[in-house]
Write a structure and sequence with these properties.
Length: 260
């Protein structure tokens, strides 16, 4: 069936989407719920400017997810942005309604819920964290850390305000920052042996390692943590949670926030 024949069309925009789980996830969801009038498609676009042409081509588009590298660039193509997405500085979900494009961020909900589920009963998250990467995905992560009162250092290939380079990561910093979150694509299939350049030898069973990468299930980064008995989790649960939150946004009959 042609995409224009579906009553409700949804999709994902990004540059390279062959790795994405979104189409399979929503395809299974629609099949389970017998939503034969709905379809989810991948829309790889070489530049964010092509979003206009995409939306014009498919008047049945009801919602879009946004991934690398457009979570920040998409702001210029939206009519409105939710307060939390504006504060985060990244959009991963777009609702198309009444001729308007409204941007949201559901990554922070997915990450927070997934992260808190890692903590054993009676324990607390570490007080300090390292955030590896400074792209659009990292912004939702730091938003959550601020709200949870967790101090953090951002780690990047280049130095800058409130961030250090991988070369500046010392054993002492790894020891004092027991929550380490990889927001980079390093380790994603097929480059499964790639991992952030850290002094892994000082990891302990008291560390928490969270990887936004979910394919493979155990990245080389997480394997380093598992080897010493650290608590680890990949990004699959976060993706599922943010996807369900996006679905809730797309299907809500009311406006979900007031005009700013």
């Amino acid at each position: 069936m042609k995409l224009t024949n579906y009553k409700n069309l949804y999709g994902l925009i990004g540059e390279y989407l062959s790795y994405s789980f979104s189409k399979k996830y929503f395809g299974e969801k629609f099949a389970k719920e017998k939503r034969t009038d709905s379809f989810y498609e991948l829309f790889p676009i070489p530049t964010i400017d092509e979003i206009d042409q995409l939306i014009d081509r498919y008047p049945n588009l009801r919602g879009l997810n946004v991934t690398i590298p457009y979570k920040e660039k998409v702001f210029d193509f939206l009519d409105e942005v939710s307060p939390d997405a504006a504060e985060i500085g990244a959009v991963n979900t777009i609702r198309l309604i009444d001729g308007k494009r409204i941007g949201y961020n559901t990554d922070h909900y997915g990450f927070r819920t997934s992260l808190l589920s890692m903590v054993p009963k009676g324990e607390k998250l570490p007080a300090r964290a390292l955030v590896l990467g400074t792209g659009g995905a990292s912004k939702a992560i730091t938003y959550v850390l601020r709200r949870e009162g967790i101090d953090f250092l951002k780690v990047s290939r280049t130095a800058g305000l409130h961030k250090i380079t991988y070369g500046n990561l010392t054993e002492e910093l790894i020891g004092s920052h027991r929550l380490i979150i990889n927001t980079t694509p390093l380790g994603t299939y097929p480059e499964v042996e790639a991992l952030p350049a850290l002094p892994y030898g000082v990891l302990t069973s008291d560390h928490y390692l969270y990887d936004l990468v979910y394919n493979p299930g155990e990245t080389a980064f997480l394997a380093k943590g598992n080897f010493v008995g650290a608590k680890t989790k990949n990004g699959l649960e976060m993706l599922s949670l943010q996807a369900e939150k996006a679905w809730e946004i797309w299907n809500n009959t009311k406006k979900l926030f007031k005009n700013r």
